[in-house]
């Protein structure tokens, strides 16, 4: 199997049309891989020795070297070029480049679901950097994933950010850190495609786009971190933080697998 080479996603998780009926035309830049093809691919992943999605080496879905690049680095603060007002501290496991880019794309767009585990491990490292929790802490970490629209989730056949957040929570619990995933956010309205928008335009586009639809009480029972697979401008995380704060949650930080720009 060839390593997947896809387009760099131009947007973060939030900028997808919200409340769009599945039958309506969509501006979401989803690669139109038919479901049977994706199912076949997922089945082949199980049956055949795959090539590493990061480097193409045979007989493994993710080779030790690529896995190490994803999970062995010291997480760093993400630093968007023009940090929008209201941006919390965001920690990223790695810089957005290969192999992280290939692993994220294979998981998100090709349904290579087993990659959620290493991606979750990477996210868990970023969470620990954002909030150096102790195993004996009384209040749990609450990971709030950036939401996907129902439409996007249906088109992909799964919700990649939620899946990676769950894998991260599992890794953290395995390390003795009480952690829960709280999928509290959803889209309140449709937003335009973010591609081609600069940071300020993205922020205007996203303002008021997210809302807390569930788990309001639970959000006050722990340390809230917004989690996502990728941060570029930070506009999505600002909007998530705004929505969570409006619901009474105190967002401590953001944590992502990869960031396009990191603090040196
Ligand atoms: Zn590799």
TrEMBL record:
Residues 1-31 are annotated as: Disordered. InterPro entries: ComF/GntX_DNA_util-trans, PRTase-like, PRTase_dom. Signal peptide: none annotated. SUPFAM superfamilies: PRTase-like. It comes from the Bacteria. Residues 7-31 have a biased composition (Low complexity). Belongs to the ComF/GntX family. This is ComF family protein. It comes from Streptacidiphilus fuscans.
């Amino acid at each position: 199997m060839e390593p997947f080479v896809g387009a760099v996603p131009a947007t973060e998780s939030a900028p997808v049309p919200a409340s769009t009926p599945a039958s309506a035309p969509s501006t979401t830049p989803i690669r139109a891989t038919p479901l049977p093809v994706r199912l076949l691919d997922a089945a082949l992943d199980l049956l055949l020795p795959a090539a590493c999605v990061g480097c193409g080496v045979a007989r493994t879905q993710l080779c030790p070297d690529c896995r190490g690049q994803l999970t062995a680095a010291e997480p760093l603060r993400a630093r968007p070029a023009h940090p929008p007002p209201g941006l919390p501290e965001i920690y990223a496991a790695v810089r957005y480049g290969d192999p992280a880019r290939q692993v994220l794309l294979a998981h998100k767009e090709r349904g290579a679901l087993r990659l959620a585990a290493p991606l979750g491990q990477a996210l868990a490292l970023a969470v620990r950097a954002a909030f150096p929790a102790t195993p004996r802490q009384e209040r749990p970490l609450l990971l709030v994933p950036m939401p996907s629209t129902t439409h996007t989730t249906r088109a992909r056949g799964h919700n990649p950010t939620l899946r990676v957040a769950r894998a991260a929570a599992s890794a953290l619990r395995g390390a003795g850190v009480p952690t829960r995933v709280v999928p509290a956010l959803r889209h309140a309205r449709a937003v335009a495609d973010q591609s081609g928008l600069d940071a300020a335009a993205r922020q205007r586009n996203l303002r008021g786009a997210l809302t807390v639809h569930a788990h309001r009480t639970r959000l006050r029972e722990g340390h809230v971190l917004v989690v996502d697979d990728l941060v570029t401008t930070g506009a999505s995380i600002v909007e998530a933080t705004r929505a969570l704060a409006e619901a009474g949650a105190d967002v401590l930080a953001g944590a992502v697998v990869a960031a396009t720009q990191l603090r040196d």
